[in-house]
Every structure is written in structure tokens, then in C-alpha cells.
Design brief:
595 residues; alpha/beta; Rossmann fold; 3 domains; seven-stranded parallel β-sheet; six-stranded parallel β-sheet; 19 strands; globular
């Protein structure tokens, strides 16, 4: 008998009420209906599948391409006493095998998977035995070739439906045009169309575009006029560093954040920003997914993103507490040409793609016909050096290989050291008693971590070194030694991004790209870019109405607060924000124009 959804919400999370649209989505799922939920950024998508899954009392498979977000959600669920595991490409086969077997035996409430894992033999062998109650597809726009972030591995989700045809599917995304929404439902084989559409309108968010020179000067004026914390988005890593330094030079606490930083540095920046010690983070789009900070007062784009979907998602990270916030887009006429050049550069030639594929295979010594579902570290600078291609071109080539179905990319996520005992209990006991080198380490491991004979555990090498009175490097050296000797399973920590081969390694010279598919992707990317450029440079109507119109929610009302509405009200008689927050031409460039 299913549990009451409000009892689950209150008992597990301590919430008395659902957010807008959440209850409608949850009830649709509980009725067994395939459901596509379009909820804006910050709308609480995760509870829409977590609550009904716990109410049903059956396993929920969650498909997501975001490893860091999966790990974060699993960690939160576990603190609440919920049985959850994430299977990622960073795990060793024995760990994956244990996790999937636990799911098949009904020992889990949630199994988080990256989409490429669905095609693996280990998963397909367990799938029929899994007591499945719900399939949740996060970032569902990734399944649509019309979407801005299409990933071929998402097409494998159909295998879940074939094995469990009566299990409802809940697809979730924060941004999808009507065309993409229809494509999602078709590709996920919905038994009947069922779209629950939360409003894309954010009444607390003011959209403001400013065009002209001296973007950094405009950024300073924004920081002076808008109190609180903010995010400054740029499209390249060097720009984040320069912008953070510029803000620091003008007395504003700021830090840079991009995927090239170590996990420790990224985590430090995020924590200092979340606590208020850092006021602004200058970041690439690697920053933002899963951030749970409600009081962001402004998001500033120092250049237009490549599409409206990215812009809306990133801008929507401001004002999640429902209080007044701003989405600033600072543009210059030169941005238009740069964005078009960047689009063309994102589609490398076949020769360049083959060169990068060969270099990846050579670096990791992947034999022909080998490597399927193996994850390999990605070191972009080394690949660029080996191929004599710019790092940006290498990244584009890897993305092309992903879109071609050859591999799956994952951003760098912190993967701590994991250990499991492989030797027999008698062997381990003898070593604890007789081996002066490894015995003390085994003693500490067994005392600190339970179940090491059954499944891998995440270990804290620093804490272990303190208890042993040895250096961290000494502990790591012993772990590597015992791993080589087969006494333990040892997965050392790593933070690098990875590429997982989705098919056995091929001869690079025989690698082919389907010309029609490449051309189609180019046309769709160009179409999305032109929509973004129209918004940034040619839109003369209300900004909020333009955003709603793009996502299929036409509005006859104008917000009365954006730069265009203010320009239309030449006398400035529309209702203004509070005095401290008032916007005027000072936010625009010195000597520039906001029109």
C-alpha cells in the first residue's frame, strides 16, 4: 500500500508543503502516468521523483548526465536515511557490480545512473530482476536532437521501457521549447502525451540587457548598485581569472571558478561564496548545477551565451528565495561575430576528430577492440600537445565523438579513494598479526570502516595517516602495494574529467561521421544562436515576454521593469524597484547606450 505523499514529504524532508507544480507532478506519477515536467531552475525537480518513489516503496532509477549532481543528491539522501547509490564511470567494475546487485535484490530506494551505463552488459543482466517502480530522467532535453545539449546515450533509455513497460517514466527539465517537449515524449515512448508545464515567468527576476563598451566598468556599477552576492558568467577560463582579479583590485571579494581547477580549489571557492566570504564568483558554466544558494541577488553575463536555454538556466540562479533579483546581459557589437566564429570552431573536421581519437587511444594504450565502458582520464593540455591542436579544438573534437556515440564525457568530479578487501579472512588476520608494515594499516581500516569484505568503502587517507603516525604518502604507497598484490581493491582518488568508451576502440583511420547528422546539428545550433543574438541585439519588446515567448508561453503583458520596458516608458513612470536597487543609465557603459 503506497504511503501518503505529504507524510513522506514531512517525515523525510521536514517540509509541510510542496512548491508550486510539485504536487501535480507527484500525483501524476503516483497515478502511473508517464509525465514530462517542465519546471524552471530552482523549482525543486528532485523532490518530484524522490517523494513518489519513497511513497511507492519500490526502486527508482534516476538517469542523469551530471556526475557531481548525482553524487550530491545521493549524499543528501543518505543523510536522511534513504538507501541510494550512484553508479558512475569513475567506479571500478567490482563496485558497479555490487551496486547493481544491491538494486536487483531490493536493497536500494534509488539507483542513479549515467545514461551510457544503461547499455552495459552488467546493467542489462540485472535489469529484469530489479523491483522497479519509477524511471526518472533528469535533464530530459538531452534525449532530443532538437535540444541544446543532445546526448546520444540518452537514446538507450528505451531499453528500460522495453524491460519494464508498465513502469511510469518521469522526465524533467528546466528548459525546453514546445518542439523539444514533443520530441522528449516521443523518444521516451510515452503511452499518452502528458506535459505538466510550470510557468517560466520569474516575477522576482528583472531581465536587463546593456550594450556598449567598457563591460568591466558596467560590472563595477552593478556591484555598487545591487547589494548581495552574485555570479558573473563568461565562456572561457582565462576570462574568469581576469574578471575575478579585476573585482578584487576594486575592493570586491571575488574568486574564479572553472573546470580546470582542482576539486579542492573548486570546493573552497563554492564554500566561501555560499558562506558570504566571497561576494562574486566569476565562472564558466561549470558553476551552478546543484548549487543550493537561494539569496543570489544578481547573475551577470559578460557576453551572450550560445543559446537561450543556457541563458535562462544560468540567469535563473538568481532570486530563488523569491526576493528581487537581476539577470544582467552585458553585450557589445563585437560579441556577435565572436559567437558565430565560436560556433563554427565547435564543429571540427573529420581529420581533426580522428587525430584526437588516436591520441586518446595512444595516451592510454587502448588496444584495438578493447576499452568498451572503460573510463579514461582526460588531460586536455596533453592531448592538445600530442595533436598539435588548440585545447578548444580538442574539446570540440571530443564533443563530436560523444555526439557520434563513440564515447561519453564527464566533467571532473571529486572521486575519493575507495578500498575493499579481496583476500580471505585468514590471510588478513595473519597479516594483521605478523606483518609489521601492512598489519597496522589493515587494523585501522577494519576498525574505521565496516563491511570491507562485502563492498568498497570511501576512506580518509589523512585521518588514517594521523592514527598511524605516518605520512599520507606512506599510507597511499602501502595501499597501492596491497592493490598490486591483489590483497585489496584500491581505487585512488582523482579529480580529472573522464571519457568513457561506449564501443570498443576502433581504427581511427576508419572512424566516420554521419554527414547528414553533423549538418543537422550545425543547423540547429545556428538556429539557437540566432535566437540568442536576436534577444541580445535586436529585441525591442519586453525582455520577460521575449523569454516566455521562446519557451512557448506567450505573454500579452510587459513586465514594466526591464531595460526595454523602461525605454518604452520615456517618462520613467513605471513602478521602480526600491531606491537602493534603482537602475538607471549608470548601469550602462560610460559614453555608451542601453538601446
Amino acid at each position: 500500500m503506497p504511503r501518503d505523499i505529504h507524510a513522506v514529504l514531512r517525515g523525510t524532508w521536514g517540509y509541510e508543503h510542496f512548491r508550486p507544480m510539485q504536487e501535480e507532478v507527484v500525483r501524476s506519477v503516483m497515478e502511473g502516468r508517464d509525465t514530462l515536467a517542465l519546471l524552471p531552475t530552482g523549482g525543486g525537480k528532485s523532490l518530484c521523483f524522490q517523494v513518489p518513489a519513497l511513497a511507492m516503496g519500490k526502486l527508482c532509477i534516476v538517469v542523469s548526465p551530471l556526475i557531481a549532481l548525482m553524487k550530491d543528491q545521493v549524499a543528501r539522501l543518505r543523510t536522511l536515511g534513504v538507501r541510494a547509490v550512484a553508479v558512475t564511470s569513475a567506479m571500478a567494475p567490482v563496485e558497479i557490480d555490487n551496486a547493481l546487485e544491491s538494486a536487483a535484490m531490493g536493497k536500494l530506494d534509488f539507483l542513479y545512473l549515467s545514461p551510457e551505463r544503461i547499455g552495459s552488459e552488467l546493467f542489462k543482466a540485472r535489469l529484469p530482476r530489479m523491483p522497479l517502480g519509477l524511471i526518472a530522467v533528469d535533464e530530459a532535453h538531452c534525449i532530443s536532437q532538437w535540444g541544446y545539449d543532445f546526448r546520444p546515450a540518452y537514446l538507450l533509455i528505451g531499453a528500460l521501457r522495453e524491460t519494464h513497460p508498465q513502469v511510469p517514466v518521469l522526465a524533467l527539465t528546466a528548459s525546453a521549447t514546445p518542439e523539444v517537449a514533443k520530441d522528449i515524449m516521443e523518444r521516451l515512448a510515452f503511452r499518452a502525451p502528458n506535459l505538466l508545464h510550470g510557468s517560466f515567468r520569474r516575477p522576482e527576476l528583472i531581465f536587463w540587457t546593456s550594450r556598449g563598451e567598457d563591460k568591466l566598468g558596467r560590472l563595477l556599477r552593478i556591484a555598487a548598485n545591487v547589494p548581495g552576492t552574485g555570479i558573473v558568467y563568461l565562456r572561457d577560463r582565462r576570462g574568469t581569472v581576469r574578471t575575478a582579479q579585476f573585482l578584487q583590485q576594486h575592493g570586491i571579494r571575488a574568486a574564479a571558478y572553472h573546470a580546470g581547477l582542482s576539486f579542492g580549489e573548486r570546493d573552497r571557492v563554492q564554500q566561501e561564496w555560499a558562506s558570504g566570504n566571497v561576494r562574486y564568483v566569476a565562472a564558466t558554466n561549470a558553476f551552478g548545477m546543484g548549487i543550493d544558494k537561494a539569496d543570489v541577488r544578481c547573475v551577470v553575463h559578460l557576453e551572450p551565451p550560445p543559446d537561450m536555454e543556457s541563458y535562462y538556466q544560468e540567469a535563473g540562479r538568481a532570486g530563488r528565495d523569491g526576493q528581487l533579483a537581476f539577470a544582467f546581459l552585458l553585450a557589445h557589437s563585437s560579441d556577435e561575430g565572436k559567437l558565430r566564429e565560436r560556433l563554427e570552431a565547435s564543429f571540427p573536421s573529420l581529420a581533426e576528430v580522428r587525430r584526437v581519437y588516436q591520441a586518446l587511444a595512444d595516451m592510454h594504450r587502448i588496444a584495438l577492440g578493447a576499452g568498451q565502458y572503460e573510463a579514461y582520464d582526460l588531460d586536455l593540455p596533453k592531448l592538445a600537445q600530442r595533436t598539435a591542436l588548440p585545447a578548444g579544438k580538442v574539446h570540440s573534437a571530443l564533443k563530436t565523438l560523444e555526439l557520434n556515440g563513440d564515447l561519453a564525457l564527464s566533467d571532473g568530479a571529486h572521486n575519493p579513494t575507495r578500498v575493499m578487501i579481496r583476500a580471505s579472512g585468514d590471510t588478513i588476520h595473519r597479516m594483521r598479526v605478523e606483518d609489521a608494515r601492512t598489519g597496522p594499516l589493515l587494523e585501522v581500516l577494519l576498525r574505521m570502516y565496516g563491511g570491507l569484505f562485502e563492498e568498497p568503502a570511501i576512506i580518509d587517507e589523512e585521518r588514517i595517516s594521523q592514527l598511524l603516525g605516518k605520512s599520507v604518502e606512506h599510507v597511499r604507497s602501502l595501499l597501492r602495494e596491497m592493490g598490486r598484490d591483489g590483497l585489496i581493491f584500491h581505487q585512488p582518488r582523482k579529480d580529472l574529467p573522464t571519457a568513457t568508451l561506449l564501443m570498443p576502440r576502433r581504427d581511427a583511420a576508419q572512424l566516420a561521421l554521419e554527414p547528414h547528422a553533423v549538418q543537422l546539428r550545425m543547423e540547429r545550433a545556428r538556429h539557437r544562436l540566432e535566437a540568442m543574438l536576436d534577444y541580445a541585439f535586436r529585441e525591442r519588446g519586453c525582455r520577460e515576454a521575449a523569454v516566455l515567448r521562446y519557451f512557448g508561453q506567450p505573454s500579452l503583458e510587459r513586465c514594466g521593469r526591464c531595460d526595454n520596458c523602461r525605454a518604452m516608458d520615456k517618462a520613467g513612470l513605471v513602478q521602480e524597484p526600491p531606491l537602493r536597487w534603482r537602475l538607471d543609465e549608470r548601469v550602462g557603459p560610460a559614453g555608451g547606450t542601453n538601446t
